[in-house]
Amino acid sequence: MKLSDQSQRFFPVGMTFIAVTLIVLTSHEANAQLDFEAAPINYETAAESNRIAELAVRIEKGEVTLEYDKEHGYLKSLLAHLNVPISSQMLVYSKTSFQLRKISPRRPRAVYFNDDVYIGWVQRGDVIEISTADRELGGVFYTLSQDESEPPRFIRDRGQCLTCHASSRTATVPGHLVRSVHVDRSGEPFYGHRTFNTDHRSPITERWGGWYVSGTHGKQRHMGNVTLDKSDDEADLDREAGANVTDLDTLLHVAPYLSTTSDLVALMILEHQTQTHNQITWTAFETRSALHYDEIMNNALERPADYRSESATRRIESATEKLVDHLLFVDEYALEDPVKGTSGFAAEFAARGPFDEQGRSLRQLDLNQRLMKYPCSYLIYSEPFDHLPAPAKQAVYERLHRILTGVETDERYAHLTPSLRRDILDILRQTKHDLPDAWKTNG
Fold first, then answer.
1. Chain centroid to CA 75: how far?
2. DSSP SS3 for 403
3. From the CB of residue 156, how many other CB atoms can be counted at a distance below 10 Å?
4. How many C-beta atoms lie closer than 10 Å to residue 16's C-beta?
5. Residue 205 in 3-state DSSP?
6. CB 118 within 8 A of CB 111
7. Which residue in 161, 290, 336, 412 has the most C-beta neighbors within 10 A?
8. Separation between Cα atoms, residue 58 and residue 36, nearest integer Å
9. What is the model's pTM?
10. Angle, to 10 degrees, between the axis of helix 390-404 and the axis of helix 264-301?
11. Cis preceding-peptide flag for 338 (omega within 30 of 0)
């Protein structure tokens, strides 16, 4: 019996215990694996709330026109209307897109992104691949046909993308991921070798397999810019040949692309951002599901509508604790040498702010010992974060405040020195305008 079916039933007094038991069992299963197709998420049927859906409406109303060019189709116009910087370009040559037949080390897929949107373009591709961080639904996926004879229209994916983009690699919610794989000279992944799902916690040695990487990183070595022969073992990967490459012209013909780079710093930001988006989505889904189950239980037991069970409270607290750890870069991999990109992405990214009175921003990069100068994610300003259910956002803010004011002394926050905590606290007080009143004191 589905939980939604139970919520429509009237339970006689003698049946209440049985009904409640069924609900508790169903709730327990949901803790293990969220069913985001069902209530309260309704992933397939709920209205979309994201940049692509909004742009589609503006195109339909005639407020925006996407311009087509023979070289890149709608790509340049799409990036411009979505404020996605060309400097964010990254080139991936592993055949890990549904347009895999048109991808190879000679013709890699180009990926561009900003805080909300991810764009994939393939030479001679039939479509532009698009995904976005929806304010309510997490990752939502679209294609845009490259056929000039048809009016530009965004087609939402109805399940194909979720095969990879709604799994343990994406925190079990519709989301985004950066994979690092060993590939052969055609770009085909060796799935018999190890593959890695990468974020800011990943050792550099596990990153960027199947990606071109332009930038310097000292003595650190990664998996990018090189391939394996079919007879090779993982240990045969020539990491030295792919290290500290600043000119991709030595590896491929870059003229067909909008930029000549596959920026190292952009890759590092992408890795942090994708998994942090997933954690925001998972926290939102967990909270909405917990509240939904409480609503059903309250109806069944004739409790007050706003009653919050201990299990729901624990579930929300657990989800928000994991999100806070991701926002604060807990377990971030420490850089052994400074890193530097080649595209100007780092400067463009840092210039976006917002800034406090001293000119400080959570977008300021370190790139010497860690990714960010102030280890608190800029995605705290994102619309998916702002649209977290109220109990989740309240719990996030309360935990953040305890950590930044030194009340929370757990060892996993030892990377946040007293001065860093004060700096982050001050920046947030001046730039985040929905903070609880407790943040406004000098505690």
1. 22
2. helix
3. 15
4. 13
5. helix
6. yes
7. 290
8. 29
9. 0.91
10. 120
11. no
